[in-house]
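Subject: Sanity check before I submit

Could someone independently write out the structure tokens for this chain? I want to compare against mine line by line before I put it in a report. The sequence has 361 residues.
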Amino acid sequence: MRTVTVALGEREYPVRIGSQLIGQGGGIAEILPAPRAVIVTNETVGPLYGEALPAGLAGAGVEVLGVVQLPDGEEHKDLTTLARVYDELLGARADRKTAMVALGGGVIGDLAGFAAATYQRGVPLVQVPTTLLAQVDAAVGGKTGVNHPQGKNLIGAFYQPRAVIADTDTLDTLPDRELRAGLAEVIKYGLIRDPDFFEYLEGTAESVLARDREALGQAIHRSCQNKADVVAADEREADQRALLNLGHTFAHAIETGTGYTTWLHGEAVAAGMVMAAEASHRLGLLCGDDRERIRTLIGRCDLPVTGPPELSMGDYLRIMGVDKKADAGRVRYVLMAGIGGAFVTGDVPEEVIREAIEACR
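---
Independent answer below. Compare away.
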């Protein structure tokens, strides 16, 4: 087992990465204020691990008051589904010391995390991510929330878990498409701050996609360490943490514009990173060779390098205009001054953004 620590002083917590963690309870019991928990999962993950996790928790002395099984999909990450979680917690008579255990991918982690942040003004949260994307990104760092029809994650809170338990065995049941989508977030860390990691991925992408244990474990560990370092330096996204949004402004426009139904988050991020690379190149910040390296690696991972053809330029600009990362009415973009040299700016001519999107359609 590998462990990464998210260093937030008295609120620091471990990210445990390894095999057979769910069946052993993941060491969850030792970090809870009381031996009680409610598990929140979905209709896809529940049948796979909805018995193993309660059994593991029970074996560690934790009473499971209930298992909330929600519909699967980004389109269900909304206030209606959130209300159902509250109803289930109240029905189980969960109190302020009852832990919320989020078992699933990024949607479950975000939604259950926001429920934990707001139910009785905050209950203990444990993230048990079961997708690559959630293990390397969504479950780590404390961002929680739900979507609004006008934009992704517009309703949310920063709320750190007590622990993240990343059982790599869950990736054995992950569909290939979901694994590829998660790899987009892995590539992101190389692009924003770790050029050596990007080069490592250029040499091992196929091994990761083939689920080679060593390559996959290394990719998860290195990604989590990068995420933990950024979060420890800037927990609430005042500065450095915004770099983690590379490609996301474009990606959220893709997801919102297609109704959260046809594109996975990681697929949209992949196309968004290619657009960010194109904008960076057009501003003279990223050389042509590096732009092609980015596009080539993303393409080798069978991830999209172009956006959805049905989304118009007007759609992109309208949706990005209400993105939660906008500041004083100006859309903030993460661009790259070379691979590993990401930075945030609100000073990008609209014409450059239009050209970057057009070049990736």
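---
OP: Matches mine. For the report I'm noting this point. Residues 38 and 286 are 48 Å apart (CA to CA).
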